[in-house]
Amino acid sequence: MPILEARHVKKQYRSNRVLKGVNLSVEPGTLVGVVGENGSGKSTLLSILAGELKASDGTVSVSGSLGYCPQQPVVNESLTIAEHLAYFKEAYKLRDTQYAEHLVDELHYRKFEHEKAGNLSGGTRQKLNLTLALMHQPAVLLLDEPYQGFDWETYLHFWDIVEELKRSGKAVVVISHLIFEQKKFDRILQLKDGRIGEAQ
Amino acid sequence: MRQFTAALKFSFKEQMTNRFAFGLLVVFVPIWYWMIGAITSGDAVAFRFRPTGNFIQANGHDLVLITAGLNVLTMILGFMFFHSAHRSLAFDKRLTRAGLTRFGFIAAKTVSLVVGTAVVALYTTLILIAFWHFPHNIFEVWLGFWMASLIYGAFGLLLGMLIDNELVGFFIVIMLSMMDTFLQNPIGNPAANKAFLAYFPSYGATQLDVAGGFTHTFANGEIWLSLGWFVSFLLLALGIFYMRTRRKSSVVQAIAESV
Description:
The structure holds 2 protein chains of 2 kinds.
Chain A: E1 4-13, E2 16-26, E3 31-35, H1 42-49, E4 57-62, E5 66-69, H2 81-92, H3 98-106, H4 122-134, E6 140-144, H5 152-167, E7 171-176, E8 187-192, E9 195-198
Parallel strand pairs in A: 3-7, 3-8, 5-6, 6-7
Antiparallel strand pairs in A: 1-2, 1-4, 8-9
Chain B: H1 2-16, H2 19-38, E1 44-49, E2 54-59, H3 60-98, H4 102-131, H5 138-162, H6 166-182, H7 203-214, H8 220-244
Antiparallel strand pairs in B: 1-2
Helix pairs in contact in B: 1-4, 2-3, 2-4, 3-4, 3-5, 3-6, 3-7, 4-5, 5-6, 5-7, 5-8, 7-8
C-alpha cells in the first residue's frame, strides 16, 4: 500500500499549466527520484506533496508524518545550530534531540554547534536544513535538491542516512535536475511537459 | 506551554541579536537628544493640550526633547520589529508546519513586543533625564514613550508581514515616524495644533508625554487612544501572520507532523 500517493495533480499559474495531471505512488522503504529540466515544475510538485502549495486540481494522500527539506535552507540566522534543534524539538513535541544529534555527527558539523546559522557556510546550512526535516523521523521524506553544497564526504554520508531510512521502512523522494547515483534509487521518474513517467 | 516558552525565549534571543538596532539605541539616542536640544531655545511655546482642552505654555527646548525621544523610539523599534518579522517569516512558517501552534507563536510575539518596547522606552526615558532635569511625572513620560513604541513595534510587525523588500519597509517606517512625530511639535510645525493631527498614531503618546513633562494631569484617555492604535496594528499583523502560515494543502489524509 502506498505511503504517499498523488492523483491527477494539476497546477496552473494564470495561463501557464505547470503540472497537467501528475500521478505518483510511493511505497514504504523505497527511494524515488524525480528528475526534470529546469523549470519543469519539480519544486512545484514537491511543494504540493509537502502541503506548502495548493494544487489547482487533484489530491495527495499521505500515511503518517511528513518531512520536507526545501531547496533553499530555511533557518534563522540569529540562532545557533543547538538552538535550532532545541526549538524544533518543542515544535515536533519530541522527548529529546537524540536522533538530531546523531544526524549532526553523521553529517559532520558538530564543531559548529554553537555558531549562529548566519555565520555558517552554504553547505553547513544545508546540513542543518536536512537535519530539521529529518529529526522527527518522518514516514515520508521529501528532499528538494538535497545535496547542493555538500562536500564529497558529506555526500557519501547523506546516502548512508538515506539507506538507514529505507531500512527502517521510510519512503524518500528526491527531486533533482541531475541524478548520478542511479543504482541507489528504486525508481526514477521524469517530469516532462507537466506529466510524470518512468525515466528513459 | 513548553512551545510558548520556547517561542518566547527564541523571540527574545532574536531581538537581542539585532546589533545594529542596539548600536543605534546606545549611540544615536543621546546624540540625538543633545543635538536637537542644542539647537532649540527654551522659549515658551503654545501647545494644544487635549486632556484639558486648553493651550499650555511649554518650554520649547524640553518639548523638542519629547519629540526627539518619540522620533528615535518609533524609528528604531519600527525598524527592529519589521526586520525581525520580515527575516523570520519563512522560518516561522517552517516551525508551524513542524507543529508549533500558531496561537503559541502569536502569544510569544505579543509578549516579546510588549516587554521589549517597555524596556527600550525605559532606557530612552532615563537618557532623557540627563538632558531635562524636571519633568513633572517621569512615569507618565515613560508611559508615553512606551505607547509610541508599542504602536510602531506592532506597525513594524505588520510591515514585515506585507513588504518583501527590506529597503522599502525601512523607508516606510522612517517616513511615517518623521511625519507623525515632528508634525506634532509646534516648533517644527507652526500648524501643529491642527485638529487632524489627532488622527496620527503617536498623537496620544505625545499628549501623554506633554502631560508628564509639563502638567500635573494624568492623561488616561490618551492611553486608551494609543492602545487602540497598538491593538489595531497588532491584530492586523497577527491576522496576516496566521493567514500566511496556513497550510495551503491538497493533502487529504491526516498528517501527524510535517515540516
